[in-house]
Specification:
Number of strands: 0
Largest sheet: none
Number of helices: 3
Structural class: mainly alpha
Order of helices and strands: HHH
Strand content: under 5%
Radius of gyration: 19 Å
Distance between the termini: 35 Å
């Protein structure tokens, strides 16, 4: 699982200049308790969004049918 792999990666210390109100809003929306957790969750969501886009593009042209639908 990709999220488990990312969770085990080595963490590095970084310094960012962020707007406190934006960070507080993100924490509230994401339900996180720390700034680090909010940033990591937001980044996870961006990566997942790209995975969804890539998967959708890969599925273009693939015909999906219900298992109850008779085969051709």
């Amino acid at each position: 699982m990709a999220s488990t792999r990312r969770a085990r990666e080595r963490k590095v210390s970084k310094t960012y200049r962020l707007t406190p109100s934006k960070l507080a809003a993100a924490q509230r929306i994401l339900g996180t308790t720390t700034a680090t957790e909010a940033i990591e969750t937001a980044l996870d969501m961006v990566v997942f969004r790209q995975e969804l886009i890539d998967g959708t593009r890969a599925m273009l042209g693939v015909e999906l049918r219900s298992p109850d639908e008779p085969g051709k």
